[in-house]
Amino acid sequence: MKTQTLENQTQTTDFLPLKGTDYIELYVGNAKQAAHFYKTAFGFQSLAYAGPETGIKDYASYVLVQNNIRLVLTTPLQPEHPINKHIQKHGDGVKILALWVDDAYDAYQQTISRGAKSYLDPQTRRDEHGQLRMSGIYTYGETVHLFIERKDYTGPFMPGYRKWESTYNPEAIGLLHVDHCVGNVGWNQMNKWVKFYEDVMGFRNILTFDDKQISTEYSALMSKVMSNGNGYVKFPINEPAEGKKKSQIEEYLDFYGDEGVQHIAIATNNIVDTVTQLQSRGVECLKIPSTYYDNLEARVGQIDEDIEPLKNLGILVDRDDEGYLLQIFTKPVEDRPTLFFEIIQRKGAQSFGAGNFKALFEALEREQDARGNL
Q1: Is 53 left (phi over 0), alpha (psi -120 to 50) or beta?
Q2: Which of 38, 100, 150, 338 has a 20 to 30 A CA-CA distance from 65?
Q3: Are 233 and 183 in contact, with CB atoms under 8 Å apart?
C-alpha cells in the first residue's frame, strides 16, 4: 500500500512541546451510570469527583484512571446548562482532548498567535495541593484542546475535585495509554485541519491515505495522520470520499451532527488477554470473517501469537518496516453510531494498520447496513 511520509517537514524547534495526553473528557447524559460502565466494561478505577458535594452546583464529573489514561465523564445538573445543548446535538461524545504541557500559558500564546480560536483564557487554579495552570483552544467541530500544566500540583486530579473512594473496583484489563485519537471532519475539510495542526500546533503529516487506499465496493474515505514533534500525540483526521453508498464518516457526521472525535485508540501489552476480558464483560467488537485469517502469516510474516485466539476474538494484524501491530475495534459504545474504541498492541510497528483497512471498513459497512444507514 502506498503511504506518504513527510519527515523532512519536521521543524527544528518545537514551539509547542507536548508530554502526552493528560485526559479525555466526555460530555454524557448520566455521568454516574457512564462511570459504572467504563469501570465494569473497560476496567477503569475511581480517581476523583466534582459536583455539589465539592461546591459545584451545576454539573458533576467523575474521573477514572487506568495506568496513564485519565477519562473524565461530565453531566449537567440543570436543564439550562450549556452542556445540555452539546448532549442534545451530539449525544454522548468527546468534548476535551487535554494535552500535558510544561507551560500552559506559553502554549496558549504560541497557538493563539498562530491563529487558534480561544476556548479558555490562561488561568491558575489553587487548593491545598498546590496550583494547576490551564488554557484552551478550539479544534474541529466543538472539540477543544486544553493545555494542562501540573508541575506544581499534587492533588488527585485538579482543584475543585476530591479523591473518589469506591468499594466497587473491578480489575484493570491492561490498558496503558492513549495511542491516538481520530477525528472525523466534513467534505473537503481534511486539508484545512491538517494545515491547522501544522501551522497552529507545529504538528507534521506523517502518513497520508487516499480514497483508492481506503475503499470498499460501496464507500471510501481519506485520512491524514498528524503527529507532534516527539510523537507522543497523534491525531489522524478523516474525511468522506465519493462512493456508491454512504461512508462510515458520513454516518458519523449525520448522527453526531458535526465534526468530532470518532474513536480513541488505547495501547496494551497483551491484546489477547485485554480483549478476552473486554468481551467477557460485554463489550462488543466488530466481527471479521474467518477467511481474513487464511494465510495470515503469508501476508504479514511470522508473529509471536497463535492465530486461533486472534481468529476467535477478531483481532487484526498488520506489518510495516518497523515491525507489526495487532488491533481490534469495538462497536459504538452508545446508541448513536458515533464514538468507539480501538485496542492496539504495537510490536515495533509505528503505522496504523493500513493492510487491515479493507477488512475493517467492510465490517463497519455490515453494521451500517444492519442499521439501515449504508
Answers
A1: alpha
A2: 338
A3: no
Q: How many residues does the chain have?
A: 374
pLDDT at position 243: 67
Q: Which set of grid coordinates corresponds to residue 31? A: 455521568
Q: What integer pLDDT is reported at residue 359 of this predicted model?
A: 65
pLDDT of amino acid 360 = 62
Residues ≥6 apart with Cβ < 8 Å to 221 = 211, 214, 215, 238, 239, 240, 241, 247, 248, 249, 361
Domains contained in the chain, CATH given: 20-163 (3.10.180.10), 175-371 (3.10.180.10)
Q: Which strand ranges, in their side-by-side order, compose the sheet holding 316-320? A: 204-209, 220-227, 234-241, 175-184, 260-268, 340-347, 323-329, 316-320
Element containing residue 360 per DSSP (H, E):
helix 357-371
Q: How far is CA 151 from CA 81, 100, 109, 173, 240, in A?
A: 32, 10, 19, 29, 41
CB 49 within 8 A of CB 31: no
- In DSSP terms, which residues pair with 136 in a beta bridge? 120, 146
Count the helices and strands in the chain (H runs, E runs): 9, 17
**Per-residue pLDDT tens for 86-117?**
999 999 999 999 999 999 999 999 999 999 99
Kindly tell me the burial class for residue 339, based on how many C-beta atoms sit within 10 Å of its own C-beta (0-12, 13-18, 19 or more).
Answer: buried
Instruction: Match 473528557 to its residue by C-alpha cell.
Output: 25
What single-letter DSSP state applies at residue 9?
A: G
Angle in degrees, CA 256, 261, 266, rounded to 5: 135
- Cα–Cα separations (whole angstroms), residue 125 to 51, 60, 133: 17, 18, 6
The C-alpha cell that represents 98 in the structure block: 487535554
Give the range among 180-189, 191-200, 204-213, 360-369 with minimum mean pLDDT.
Answer: 360-369
Q: How confident is the model at residue 7 (pLDDT cuts 50, 70, 90)?
A: very low
Residue 75 has pLDDT above 90, yes or no: yes
Checking if the pLDDT of 2 tops 70, the result is no
Host H or E run for residue 300: helix 296-300
